[in-house]
């Protein structure tokens, strides 16, 4: 599993505002707050357990409005129109991803997000017919053999933190649990079906089909078709996933007893969040606490490694934002403590050209445009569910991660109530070894734990035997 060194907790009255600085007991309201400028949403950190009334007082005194407050982790979601709201709260305690994107420094993030969306666009829609023969990705991890033995338990829920799931899709209509689904785009959970349905992206629907889709009429089957899915929408209509949405999603998963979550994204504007830098520190800490809370509540979080062909352990700059990067910085959530990070392989079983590497736990099929299957074996990118009740191909580590999440769900079904760390260990120990090839000089490490493939290719059959 990935390990990320945690920050030591600063003093309550630490210079710069301190991540754990408590709200003042009382403070006079300002003479006037900006009521006309564009509002932005912020994550704001408090000492865990801080009373909500104290949070309300500080936010009101500093021209903010509470959107949500997660007392268990001491993280508030706030909205403010005031340009210096972050400075009023403390630059190490508050951060707005949307405000960062709107600034000049966010232009690169917008370009990067556009490139990611292009890579993971649906490249083609499958014609009607038996799709089983085209699911080379499922064959690679022995999912068809596993499905004959065990398809998973309805008592196990996998949260798909993504762009929403089309719950009416023929392969998903019996899998999606509306009672466990929520929209988290604003940072506060919204239980209305419209809030967790897809609008501008079929990304989450594709991920969901890989995990637990099943459509006998089309011959399509996912990794663990017997488990439940929860749609937790964290991606907004512009394609961004801001820290407040991720915090809401992880806390929702914790509170609703999910066994596994799939996180095929990085938190925007990204790429790297650095715990020693203003703004970044608040986002880093808020997300870290939410992930840690979910892990303590029994959730194994699985995440995509990313599609930038980067060595995650050897970066000094951030292509999305102009700030220095060192070993304390991380792409979130994939590099956070306790999260299983998944790289991608193509049809030939070697690392996809786009896949990040360096800090990897396991690998799984995500496709590769240069690894073309033979005629009749399917497209170069994994085939799965897309909106409109159809099936289409997408490439990316976003497609690799749900294969691993599906295998984890099978293990969780076999071992009910298993602790997340033990579940991750089983996922890793049962993976098939993928050695570094002589033609892969950047791949280093032993066969069972290297920088390209981690502990190996996830194996669904081993998970159920």
Model description:
The chain has one domain: Peptidase S8/S53 domain (Rossmann fold). The longest helix has 18 residues, at 397-414. The model is unreliable at 1-29 (pLDDT under 50). Strand 8 (214-215) and strand 9 form a beta hairpin. A seven-stranded parallel beta sheet has the order 7-10-6-11-13-15-16, sandwiched between helices. A four-stranded antiparallel beta sheet has the order 2-3-1-4, sandwiched between helices. Helix content is 26%, strand content 15%. It has helices at 52-61, 85-89, 97-102, 107-119, 136-140, 143-149, 203-212, 243-255, 280-296, 397-414, 420-429, 460-464; strands spanning 40-45, 65-70, 75-80, 94-95, 124-125, 157-162, 182-183, 214-215, 220-221, 228-233, 260-263, 272-273, 300-304, 330-331, 340-345, 362-365, 383-386, 390-393. Helix 7 runs parallel beside helix 10 (397-414), helix 8 (243-255) runs parallel beside helix 9 and helix 10 crosses helix 11 (420-429). The protein is globular, with a radius of gyration of 21 Å. The chain contains twelve helices and 18 strands. By secondary structure, the chain is α/β, with parallel strands linked by helices.
Topology:
Layout: E1 40-45, H1 52-61, E2 65-70, E3 75-80, H2 85-89, E4 94-95, H3 97-102, H4 107-119, E5 124-125, H5 136-140, H6 143-149, E6 157-162, E7 182-183, H7 203-212, E8 214-215, E9 220-221, E10 228-233, H8 243-255, E11 260-263, E12 272-273, H9 280-296, E13 300-304, E14 330-331, E15 340-345, E16 362-365, E17 383-386, E18 390-393, H10 397-414, H11 420-429, H12 460-464
Parallel strand pairs: 6-10, 6-11, 7-10, 11-13, 13-15, 15-16
Antiparallel strand pairs: 1-3, 1-4, 2-3, 5-18, 8-9, 12-14, 17-18
């Amino acid at each position: 599993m990935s390990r990320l060194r945690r920050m030591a907790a600063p003093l309550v009255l630490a210079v710069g505002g301190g991540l754990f600085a408590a709200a003042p007991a009382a403070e006079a309201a300002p003479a006037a707050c900006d009521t006309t400028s564009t509002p932005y949403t912020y994550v704001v950190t408090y000492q865990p357990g801080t009373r909500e009334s104290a949070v309300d007082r500080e936010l009101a005194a500093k021209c903010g409005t509470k959107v949500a407050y997660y007392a268990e982790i001491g993280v508030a979601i706030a909205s403010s129109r005031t340009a210096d709201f972050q400075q009023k709260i403390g630059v190490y305690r508050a951060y707005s991803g949307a405000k960062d994107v709107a600034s000049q420094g966010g232009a690169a993030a917008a370009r990067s997000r556009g490139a990611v969306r292009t890579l993971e666009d649906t490249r083609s829609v499958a014609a009607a017919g038996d799709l089983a023969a085209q699911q080379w990705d499922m064959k690679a991890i022995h999912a068809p053999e596993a499905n004959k033995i065990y398809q998973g338990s309805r008592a196990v829920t996998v949260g798909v933190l993504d762009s929403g799931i089309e719950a009416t899709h023929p392969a998903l209509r019996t899998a999606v649990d509306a009672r466990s689904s929520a929209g988290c785009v604003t940072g506060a959970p919204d239980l209305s079906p419209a809030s967790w349905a897809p609008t501008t992206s079929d990304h989450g629907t594709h991920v969901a089909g890989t995990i637990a889709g099943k459509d006998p009429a089309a011959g399509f089957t996912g990794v663990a078709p017997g488990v439940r899915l929860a749609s937790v929408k964290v991606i907004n209509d512009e394609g961004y996933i801001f820290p407040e949405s991720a915090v809401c999603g992880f806390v929702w998963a914790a509170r609703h007893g999910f066994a596994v979550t799939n996180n095929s994204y990085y938190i925007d504007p990204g790429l790297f969040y650095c715990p020693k830098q203003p703004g970044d520190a608040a986002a880093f800490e808020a997300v870290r606490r939410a992930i840690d809370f979910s892990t303590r509540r029994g959730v194994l979080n699985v995440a995509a490694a990313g599609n930038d062909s980067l060595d995650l352990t050897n970066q000094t700059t951030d292509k999305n934002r102009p700030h220095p990067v060192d070993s304390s910085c991380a792409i979130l959530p994939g590099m956070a403590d306790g999260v299983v990070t998944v790289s991608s392989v193509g049809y030939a079983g070697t690392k996809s050209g786009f896949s990040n590497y360096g800090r990897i736990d396991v690998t799984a099929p995500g496709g590769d445009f240069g690894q073309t299957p033979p005629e009749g074996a399917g497209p170069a990118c994994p085939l799965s569910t897309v909106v409109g009740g159809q099936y289409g191909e997408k490439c990316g580590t976003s497609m690799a991660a749900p294969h691993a999440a599906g295998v984890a769900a099978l293990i969780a079904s076999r071992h009910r109530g298993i602790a997340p760390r033990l579940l991750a260990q089983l996922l890793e120990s049962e993976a098939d070894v993928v050695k570094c090839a002589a033609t892969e000089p950047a791949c280093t490490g032993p066969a069972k734990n290297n920088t390209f493939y981690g502990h190996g290719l996830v194996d669904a059959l081993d998970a159920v035997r």
